[in-house]
Amino acid sequence: MQNIIKRDEYLKRIIDRKENGLIKVITGIRRCGKSFLLFNLFYDYLIQSGVKEEQIIRIALDDDTFEKYRDSDELSKYIRGKIVNSDMYYILIDEVQYAITKDELKNHENIGLYNVLNGLMRLRNVDIYVTGSNSKMLTKDVLTAFRGRGDEIKIYPISFKEFYSLEGGDKSDAYEEYALYGGMPLVLSKKNDVEKMRYLQNLFTEVYFKDIEERYDIEMPDVLSELTDDLCSSVGSLTNASKIAKTLQSVKNIKVSSTTISRYLNYLIESFLFSNAKRYDVKGKKYFEYPSKYYCTDIGLRNARLNFRQQEETHIMENIIYNELLCREYYVDVGVVEIVETNAGERTKKQCEIDFVVNKGSKKYYIQSALNVSDASKLETELRPLKNTKDFFKKIIVSKTSMRHWTDDDGILHVGLYEFLLNENSLDF
């Protein structure tokens, strides 16, 4: 597939932030298309807008050509040497975490890169854009490090809508392809199944794990590997560090503390390989401390890690829906609804789950992911927690069907999976 993926929505988000006086921090998993978005699509936009080539300073720190500029002092000299007049200069720095040393990572008090960027921001004719593949160095500390001048734009692998815009054809066939190989951009250019599988599998061993092991000096790489396998095989399941540590002990005979597992979990999340959804008590309006659900950033990477052996449709669909919600810039939690039942005069309390509690601004939705709702009892099971929220926020059930959306007598919106994924306004039908 040779067509260019335009990624219009992400490009718009960057353009909307142009010259806003903030450092644009573009984050996301490595190889998800950040560099192409910034160095090609946004660059082309600037040129077409009349910006001269010499006003655009591009530095790819993961390229050995620019290795010298991983030193913050050298980086500052290089950039300032390019600014020769009062014209607006656009500074594009790719994989900026290469300019942060291991020692600086351990002590966040004085990171040279942050000082360089903050210093450049004092110039009136500078607009800065950086990409990074590690949230610990960019997102968690960005507000303090950049003194409130950081503006994060999260980039994700290709969505099903983006994929289908190129693939076309039967929606069901396209979805099955997407559910197997996911949305890492380079996968689309691979000619056959073997190439796609090999590429995705190599990403883990040759890119992601190497990055994590080198950056954090991983002492137990076998534990990191087993932890990743466990998360991939149990996407959408409730778990925590203690549970995972016990599983590794009993199943793999690997003895490791829950503290180490918790630390490694954070590394995987900070590298954008996984994200987690916390449990939220819908009626009590509070979060549970643990356990959480973990989802893979790209379903193709998940499948590749498991050698394409575990193809649980239900969990894969749930993961894809979760990722789609993140792409649309929603905050996503797992909902818990307590239901009181009376049986033979005896009252019992039962916790039921809503797959996703979704928020953006003043909007809030409850969403259930259901592979098949043709069976009446199965449908009722899925609808039950939605009916018992006892509030007026919109309730939605997404099922794997091509049927058009409709609303039932309880006011619950039923949306087919393909319609949900292909229409960005599907939650507001």
Outline of this structure?
The chain is an alpha/beta fold. The chain has helices at residues 8-16, 34-48, 72-82, 102-106, 112-120, 135-138, 142-145, 160-167, 171-181, 193-216, 221-233, 241-251, 258-270, 299-305, 313-327, 376-387, 417-422, and strands at 23-27, 56-60, 89-94, 126-132, 150-154, 238-239, 274-277, 279-281, 286-287, 292-296, 331-343, 346-360, 363-370, 394-399, 406-407, 413-416.
Structural class: alpha/beta
Radius of gyration: 23 Å
Principal-axis shape: globular
Strand content bin: 15-25%
Poorly predicted tracts of residues:
none
Helix content: 40-55%
What count of helical segments does DSSP give?
Answer: 17
**Biggest pleated-sheet summary:** 8 strands, mixed
Instruction: Give a count of the beta strands, DSSP E runs of length 2 or more.
Output: 16
Distance between the termini: 33 Å
Number of domains: 2
Write the layout of secondary structure elements.
Elements: H1 8-16, E1 23-27, H2 34-48, E2 56-60, H3 72-82, E3 89-94, H4 102-106, H5 112-120, E4 126-132, H6 135-138, H7 142-145, E5 150-154, H8 160-167, H9 171-181, H10 193-216, H11 221-233, E6 238-239, H12 241-251, H13 258-270, E7 274-277, E8 279-281, E9 286-287, E10 292-296, H14 299-305, H15 313-327, E11 331-343, E12 346-360, E13 363-370, H16 376-387, E14 394-399, E15 406-407, E16 413-416, H17 417-422
Parallel strand pairs: 1-4, 1-5, 2-3, 3-4, 8-11, 13-14, 14-16
Antiparallel strand pairs: 6-10, 7-10, 8-9, 11-12, 12-13, 15-16
